[in-house]
Design a protein that fits this description.
170 residues; Protein Binding, DinI Protein, Chain A; 3-stranded parallel sheet; 6 helices; HlpA protein
Length: 170
């Protein structure tokens, strides 16, 4: 083989080996299934229950208002609910972030990503995070999963209805 061909083969081999060499540097990647975290940890279920209770409380205020005041009460209730929900969501996010950071240190992970961001490789630390955060009761898990499934079904119905409405409008 001539020198040019050997150089090309060596160069191609090195380029193909780069991902392998990069992986040997100790980059440890973990990932978590966020939906599983949201439906199976006591903290997320507790916060979700608080948000739902606030929504029911505000809906009761709207229902109790007379016809003239109803629009004003609805507007105030929506603003109150949105602020409460955002605050509770931020509280949960900070808690989860703290727990993920602690778990990453314990497991010696360089980074923890969401499951959907990892195409291949990585270590699934979802169950470890659930255990660290406190696993919810089986009853609460089933209720949370049912709620997620109901929301998904409702979104699917809405998306199916929109094309049908557009077709009838034409």
């Amino acid at each position: 083989m001539n020198k040019k061909v050997k150089s090309l083969i060596l160069g191609a081999t090195m380029i193909m080996a780069l991902p392998i060499i990069g992986g040997c540097g100790g980059n440890n990647i973990g990932y978590v299934d966020s939906q599983k975290i949201m439906t199976q940890t006591s903290k997320s279920i507790e916060i979700n229950k608080e948000i739902n209770a606030k929504g029911k409380e505000l809906q009761a205020k709207v229902d109790a208002a007379d016809a003239e005041a109803k629009l004003q009460v609805m507007t105030e209730a929506k603003q109150d609910f949105d602020a409460f929900s955002a605050s509770k969501t931020q509280e949960l996010k900070q808690y989860v972030d703290q727990q993920v950071n602690e778990l990453a240190k314990e497991k010696k992970l360089d980074v923890v990503l969401l499951k959907g961001a990892v195409i291949g490789g990585g270590v699934d630390v979802t169950d470890d995070l659930i255990n660290k955060m406190g696993k919810a009761s089986d009853e609460d898990i089933k209720a949370a999963e049912a709620e997620v499934n109901a929301q998904d079904a409702q979104q699917g119905e809405t998306q199916q209805a929109q094309p049908a409405e557009a077709a009838t409008a034409q």
